[in-house]
């Protein structure tokens, strides 16, 4: 007997491009901060680089579905991210650490991460174990029951990472996650990133070119709201070996790309 197969069953379970932007435009206030950006990102860790004001945070806000695009097309995990009906299911599969994340200072680390897990509609029975696992992963096991107001800036950033990964997201967006981390924590965080990127699409915005070289499989550079370069860290380093401004080959590669985009703009 022939069984009818539904459209949902036929849909691929993994998406070649968990993030797919086509001529994407996003406003920050009245300013067009993302201006016709094309981007395709697969599974792996992608470092998002660009100067101050390049549009990184605005792009992250659109990818996290916090900000609605003003133009172009945005597909996340194969779904149209501008379709209000798709958003609820989509958000349950996203993780986002904003540049400035709000929290209730009286919450403990555990309470806060539990609260976010609940917001992302995780099954209630799974929450305690998932929360403990991510608190361990960001190295805050000994502060799990401390109130957020008693934590240092670097520890708060780690709480931010924990809440972003509690639902094991398929798309993870981290806006400057390493700000305030001490060198030892930064090294541990890079290991965590590489681990997360084995089966998720992770986009990490940072000003530290060295973080990108150490932990990312791919580099995305933006300037003036546009994609100006995409490649692997080794290509960035190779460019920097030919000259440019900076203390390392990767930094010189970054400055070379930026200078050539500025002179062409
Ligand atoms: N609320 C706003 N109103 C008007 N312009 C804004 C607003 N927010 C951001 N902008 C402008 O949009 C542009 C992109 O800002 P965005 O914060 O996305 O850049 P960024 O690359 O994340 O910068 P940074 O590295 O400094 O964090 C900048 O020119 C900024 O001045």
Automatic annotation (TrEMBL):
- Specify whether ATP-binding is a keyword of the entry: yes
Q: Which UniProt keywords apply?
A: ATP-binding, Nucleotide-binding, Transport
Q: Kindly indicate whether the keyword DNA damage belongs to this entry.
A: no
Task: Extract the GO molecular function terms from the UniProt entry.
Answer: ATP binding
Query: Which residue intervals define the domain ABC transporter in the entry?
Result: 19-249
- What SMART domains does the record tag this protein with? AAA (SM00382)
The UniProt entry, under Pfam families, shows:
ABC_tran
PANTHER family for this protein: ABC TRANSPORTER, ATP-BINDING PROTEIN (PTHR43335:SF2)
Per the similarity annotation, which family is this? Answer: Belongs to the ABC transporter superfamily.
Give the protein's recorded name: ATP-binding cassette domain-containing protein
